[in-house]
Design a protein that fits this description.
This protein is an alpha/beta fold and 254 residues long. It contains eight helices and eleven strands.
């Protein structure tokens, strides 16, 4: 039955050591899913490009609950995941000569009785521990395990996309998509592709200061910055970077 399905999906995610993603899913009665898609249109020998998307189907904020006003829009918190699925479908329909991998961690973030609480510690697939100081900073928690999983596939590059931070819309409104990468070649290619497609993107800063702002007190990392220095989108990117193999070119779109 449905309860068995829930146990099965959560059990599989737990056995894959996706403790960060697993933790976020606990507050909901809806079973989580880790969606894996593959499209092979190029030579078998050619490394695929990995796409990772946040698939948060509803975000109440969890125990760190959001204000009621506008909460109905949180059904759109899966747009990053929808982008990944849509891109792979488009590539398949257009029979593009590329190889793609798609990974979408998908769940609700709800304040049910089993929900994680502020102060809880989760352990991600790569063994890094995370202090959850705000359960509403959950997108980075589900992406963390997906980025580790994507890195293990040794792709040519990883692009992740997410409706991740309110700070990004403060910085750029809903006009531009902010993106982060330390790889100059990838930044150049991203800007060129954006120009071709008519997308408006803006490269945002990512430096070691942003990473150090995400250090935990009781764990390796905190899921929110406690420095009080702002730059909420950049610190989120600094957090995500800790789950990507440093040899793989990576860009994060917020």
């Amino acid at each position: 039955g449905r309860a068995g399905l829930i146990r099965h999906a959560r059990g599989k995610i737990k056995s894959e050591k996706m403790g960060s993603f697993f933790g976020v899913s606990l507050g909901s009665d809806q079973e989580p899913r880790f969606i894996v898609m593959e499209y092979t249109g190029g030579a078998k020998s050619k490394k695929p490009v990995a796409l990772v998307g946040k698939g948060l189907t509803f975000d109440s904020g969890g125990i760190s609950i959001k204000p009621s006003a506008g909460m109905e829009e949180m059904k759109y918190d899966m747009c990053g995941g929808a982008n990944v699925i849509g891109t792979i479908l488009a590539a398949a329909k257009l029979k593009l000569k590329v190889n793609l991998l798609g990974f979408v961690p998908s769940t609700e973030n709800m304040p049910g009785g089993a929900a994680i609480k502020p102060g809880d510690i989760l352990v991600a697939r790569n063994g890094k521990s995370i202090e959850v100081n705000n359960t509403d900073a959950e997108g980075r928690l589900i992406l963390a395990d997906a980025l580790v999983y994507a890195s293990e596939k040794k792709p040519a590059a990883i692009f992740d996309m997410a409706t991740l931070t309110g700070a990004m819309s403060v910085a750029l409104g809903n006009i531009h998509c902010g993106f982060f990468t330390r790889n100059d070649d990838l930044a150049k290619k991203t800007k060129a592709a954006a120009k071709t497609s008519g997308e408006l993107v803006w490269q945002m800063p990512l430096v070691d200061f942003h990473v150090s702002d995400m250090k935990g007190t009781y764990a390796d990392l905190s899921n929110v910055s406690t420095s009080g220095r702002g730059a909420g989108s950049a610190t989120a990117a600094g957090f995500l970077e800790q789950f990507v193999d440093e040899e793989i070119p990576w860009a994060h779109f917020d």
